[in-house]
């Protein structure tokens, strides 16, 4: 075997390894980073909306007013708060998903432009 053959195999091996590293970093590590970012934002929003606590006490009277008015207002206010929180969470998750999909498509878009402009 000639030295140039060995060099070509080595360079091809390194190229493939770098491509695998890039894909792993861009897609796998990027996905987990995006999930961590999204969970951090949802945790910060939950300090305002308190969805879990609101659902837990959904049918309890408002401000521990055990009259019929307390039960009715508690049900109405907590139901509205739950619906608003769910809408905000779903919109935020949908926007984050769209951003992640656009970000994940960037390498594919670059490759497409490279091969169509050759």
Global mean pLDDT: 92
Terminal Cα span: 34 Å
Tally of discrete structural domains: 1
**Category from helices, strands and their pairing:** mainly alpha
The global form is rod-shaped
Write the layout of secondary structure elements.
Blueprint: H1 3-49, H2 51-56, H3 68-116
Helix pairs in contact: 1-3
Structure characterization notes:
The chain is mainly alpha-helical and 118 residues long. It has one domain. The protein contains 3 helices and no strands. α1 (3-49) runs antiparallel to α3. The radius of gyration is 26 Å and the shape is rod-shaped. 1% of the residues are buried. The mean pLDDT is 92.
What labels would you give this structure?
single chain, 118 residues, mainly alpha
Provide a short characterization of the protein structure.
The protein is mainly alpha-helical and 118 residues long. The protein contains 3 helices and no strands.
């Amino acid at each position: 075997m000639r030295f140039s053959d060995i060099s070509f195999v080595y360079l091809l091996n390194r190229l493939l390894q770098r491509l695998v590293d890039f894909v792993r970093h861009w897609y796998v590590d990027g996905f987990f980073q995006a999930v961590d970012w999204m969970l951090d934002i949802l945790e910060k929003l939950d300090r305002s909306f308190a969805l879990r606590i609101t659902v837990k006490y959904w049918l309890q009277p408002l401000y521990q007013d055990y009259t019929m008015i307390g039960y009715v207002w508690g049900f109405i206010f907590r139901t509205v708060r739950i619906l608003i929180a769910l809408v905000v969470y779903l919109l935020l998750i949908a926007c984050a998903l769209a951003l992640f999909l656009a970000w994940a498509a960037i390498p594919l878009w670059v490759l497409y432009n490279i091969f169509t402009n050759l």
